[in-house]
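DM from R.C. (forwarded with permission)

"hey, sorry to bug you on a friday — could you get me a structure for this? deadline for the figure draft is monday and I only need the backbone to look sensible"
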Amino acid sequence: MRKTIVTTTINHPTEAIRRYDSMEGWDLIVIGDLKTPSDYRLEHGHYVSPAEQEEYDPLLSEAIGWNCIQRRNFGILIAYEMGSDIIALIDDDNIPEPSWGKELRVGTEIEVNLYETSLDAFDPVGATNHRQLWHRGYPLELLAQRRYPEPVTRRVQVDIDAGFWNGDPDIDAICRLEHAPECDFDRSLFPLAGSVMAPFNSQNTMLARRVVPYYFLYPHIGRMDDIWAAYYVQAHGFNAVFSEPSVFQDRNDHDLIRDLKAEIIGYTNNLSLIRDLKRDPESIVSYLPGPSIRAWDLYRRHFDRA
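My reply, with the result:
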């Protein structure tokens, strides 16, 4: 089984990347950007420079744009073409715990704590010991209606393993401005899942190979790039399971008001998007701007050739 870690960076190798670079049994791909130092080097992994990305697919490069986390799509494509069975997406500020990558659930069937809900979406963060918080991308209209009855034990096939994160969690800017949390999630509550679609991110997430042709980090939609990718793949029937925290997020500096502005497209569209996706997964294109659709089409051509 081939396993590959994919990340982006604009810095010299961080403490997190150094640790992933030394992990036995894993390949590491780091996608650079225009701000990445020209002398960037890894001990074992493969650094993909801006020039190499341009050579790989100049049209896709232009469509995605520069100085954005969506450059990570190049790493996903390269990992797929390498024959990777599991592709792990991580952020360069997520420091792995010793347990990271030791128990591989992707591609297996496991028992989970399944939460039944009549709402259009499931918020996994609210099912933990930090119930006052919510996951980035969860529809704000549903917050007051969240209920978490006793879960049922259910066996599910794991297509996506969305690992949690201690420290500064992946919540939206409104939630972070209000609570400024530092989280220590109760590991006994995991793994968990919902009976409907749920938001998951791209900062500590493992994908099965068969998910990848449907998974794309959409550029030009702010901080909904990975959230809408999550909803889209689940609309195609892939199962997302949420695992106990295996990283500590030592979060890079963020301007929270700038983050909030980059999330408005989600605040205003997430609920209607989810409802439309349940009827037709391809309805996502009606929510995407033209440049994002072009990038999505160019990305999918790689799988048409496969």
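R.C.: lifesaver. The chain has eight helices and eleven strands.
me: no worries. The first helix runs from residue 15 to 21.
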